[in-house]
Amino acid sequence: MSDETAMLREPWVDFSRQREAGKFGIWVFLASETLFFGALMLTYSVCRIEHPAAFAAAGRETNIWYGTINTAVLLTSSLTIAVAAQGAESYARLRRLVIACLVVTALLGLAFIVIKGFEYKEDMDKHLVPGAGFALPERAAQLFFGFYWLVTSVHAIHLSIGIALVGRLVWVLLRRELPVTENPEIEVTALYWHLVDIVWIFLYPLIYLPGRSS
């Protein structure tokens, strides 16, 4: 049985069509996620235009060091998974490199979650959770932190899913259960991971930079 036959799934009878369908499916999913996060960012923009002073005051309360470190972590993970996806095209020669890059990607993702956890704890200690006892006097600042908690938690969920997907790839590659040449699974997982990275690149200036120049 050839690698392509082993990778065929119903209802496909041709591997090339299955591969293209998989890539098309992930692009449709990425487009829907882009619309979701885009709507959230549009809502944020409208609120910031309406309440610029409150959003600037709230932005100064975020920990820019945590945000910057996590940005560097995610950008590095984007590099490692890109190397893994590229190396999969020559998997027979680069098997160790592909697996090592996937492991590093998952570990960097976990590092992001851990760092974010420390940041969340600091935010709660500073009473920056919208509701009773909110630390800032500006009422509209709660809109900023409502956006902050919503989008960062949703982003963390997406990243956790990405970590699970990368971890699964490592597991099946170590067990030699996944034929790699021309297999779309690593490429599709890499595309999903890049979405998570790109979303954070947009969130970083929205969350951590308001009010820093004044």
Automatic annotation (TrEMBL):
Segments forming domain Heme-copper oxidase subunit III family profile: 1-212
GO BP annotation list: aerobic electron transport chain
Keyword Flavoprotein: no
GO CC terms of this entry: plasma membrane
Keywords: Membrane, Transmembrane, Transmembrane helix
Example GO molecular function: cytochrome-c oxidase activity
InterPro entries xrefs: Cyt_c/ubiquinol_Oxase_su3, Cyt_c_oxidase-like_su3, Cyt_c_oxidase_su3-like_sf, Cyt_c_oxidase_su3_a-hlx
Transmembrane spans: 24-44, 64-85, 97-118, 147-171, 191-209
Main location: membrane
Annotated localization: Cell membrane; Membrane
Topology of this chain in the membrane: Multi-pass membrane protein
Family: Belongs to the cytochrome c oxidase subunit 3 family.
Protein name in UniProt: Cytochrome c oxidase subunit 3
